[in-house]
Prior knowledge:
The structure holds two protein chains of two kinds.
Chain A: E1 7-17, E2 23-34, E3 39-43, H1 50-57, E4 65-70, E5 73-74, H2 80-90, E6 91-94, H3 106-117, H4 121-134, H5 150-162, E7 168-172, H6 180-197, E8 201-205, H7 208-213, E9 216-221, E10 224-225
Parallel strand pairs in A: 3-8, 3-9, 6-7, 7-8
Antiparallel strand pairs in A: 1-2, 1-4, 4-5, 9-10
Helix pairs in contact in A: 3-4, 3-5, 4-5, 5-6
Chain B: H1 2-11, H2 13-53, E1 56-60, H3 76-85, E2 89-104, E3 107-116, H4 118-124, E4 131-134, E5 143-147, H5 148-153, E6 161-167, E7 173-184, H6 189-194, E8 195-199, H7 200-207, E9 215-220, H8 226-236, E10 242-246, H9 247-250, H10 252-290, H11 292-300, H12 305-341, E11 343-344, H13 346-351, E12 360-361, H14 367-393, H15 397-402
Parallel strand pairs in B: 3-8, 5-7
Antiparallel strand pairs in B: 1-9, 1-10, 2-3, 2-6, 2-9, 4-7, 5-8, 6-7, 11-12
Amino acid sequence: MSKAPLISARHISKTYTAKGAAKVTALTSVSLDFAAGEFSAIAGPSGSGKSTLLNIIGTLDAPTSGEVLYEGRKVSGLPPEEAADFRLRALGFIFQAYNLIPVLTAVENAEYPLVLQGVPAAERRARALEVLGWVGMESMADRRPNLLSGGQQQRVAVARSIVHRPMVVLADEPTANLDSKTAASLLDVMESLNKERAVTFVFSSHDPAVLSRARRVLHLHDGKLAPA
Amino acid sequence: MLRLAWRNVCRNLRRSLITVASMACGLAAIMFGQSMIKSVQRQLIEKATSSITGHLQVQNRSIKEYKFPDKYIDDPAPVEAVLARQAGVRAFGKRINVTGLVSSPAGSVGAMICAVEPEKEKEITTISSYLTQGRYLGTSDHEAVMGDKIAQRLDLRLGEKVVLMAQADDGSMGAEAFRVVGIYHTGSTTFDGQFIYVPLAGGQALLATGRKVNQIVVRLDDIGLAERTRQELMEKLGNRPVQVLRWLDIDHEIVAIQTFQNAILDIVLLIVFAIVALGVLNTLLMSLFERVREFGVLMAIGARPRWVMKLVLAESVILGFVGTLLGLALGCTLITYYGKAGLHLAVGDALSYFLPFPKVIYLRFAWMSHWRALLAVLVVSILAALPPALRACRLNPSEALRHV
């Protein structure tokens, strides 16, 4: 019996209905799988539905129809509390705008998933410092986000996304706000995490730098998956 | 969570300080108001009971108008015997209070004739302490002490004689001459212009009552014992045609003033609570709108909606605690200061018409009320956080992350 893929999206459709406006279809019957250890990207122009698909895969949004399964277990449509528990246990997120908590230091940001998991203070601090070391931010652990550059903030966000050892890291346009040099450096970090520590990454991006590094690229056009 | 909540509160320090200051000022104002009203009420009760009413009175059981007893206790001796043995009773004395006429060669005025046991009365009321001329009632049965306003109206001086007239127990008109030995000034228009004190024996002669009296006035060790002592006395005097009344059964006006003041206080409290609630609500809503994306991030990394709600509530609890602590400190400082320096209140002038009431009120703590206010401010600050907290926990993570 073959092992179920890590992530399996089946016939995902998403339609938005804005107040007083016509229906907008963001995704139409998208089906795809991701295996553990992948370093893959969902590509497509702005408005193609990449972020919507990533949000649905990350249980941040619910599909209008279709389902998302992790290792064969359906996670789409979970109640908000259960979805939050699932994300806390299984997912890491990296956002385009870094989205660190401004009142927390780099290490406090990095350890926050462990705070939510109820990991004891000493253990979570040690683990947060360890992952900050992996992304080259250990020396800036006590700085607040406003004292870090965009690239440094995104490295801290990467540390936060992997500190709790998730099944997959979902990165939504992670290099969009970075210059090419910083973006390349950040991709180096993520690539080495993927190779050396077996962290699974799924990106949504239209940045050629990301797409050139991804080992598999899935193209979305107008909410539909383009044939390979 | 508390660390994050605390830092969120400190994030916009000026806004948080304004909120905390409004809560603190609100609570301090409430405490000050409570203390002022309760201090006025306490002083009012103290003055009323120590000027005329006493803490308890024993009267004839068939009397309905307690302030102007129109029937007598025929045999006060057994009542006195019970009172002498009663725990908590500091002093008691017999009295006859009747309305009558005071005449001098210069004219006549209506007056409240108060026939008292002079030495016992000194332990029950403070009227002897207000003497400005002459002396207090002595051994003679036909001496009188009166307020300076009556003396002025009747053009009386110390040593001169007045004639008191009142309806005697047998229905006839009694008249007796008394020599003015003392004149007092309490500052109260009613007391200085209407009350005249004579020895009980002289009053009994005037009214032909024999040993009968219409009041036995009791001063207790503590006013708080009034109800318990009344019940105990009623049990012991149950077979006699008398009734035991508390000061508040007799002084309806004071109870009415208290009720009125409490109602006003409650309205003011409600307004202050509303202001505090709106302040907290405004701060937390502003803070919520500014942080929608952050809540989205927290939810994305695994914070449960209920956790986000608790975070917002924790911020409110922090604001509430700091605000109430500051308010408590400010309120205590104000009350302590005006407890020593005194507060000049126009209400003193108004009340002094009826009673010897001081123009300066010395504030005292009313902790039963203060704790309630403190708790209410805290609860209001938390309740005001509920709408923003519920709103935060209902956010859709993906929409929150798109929030600009």
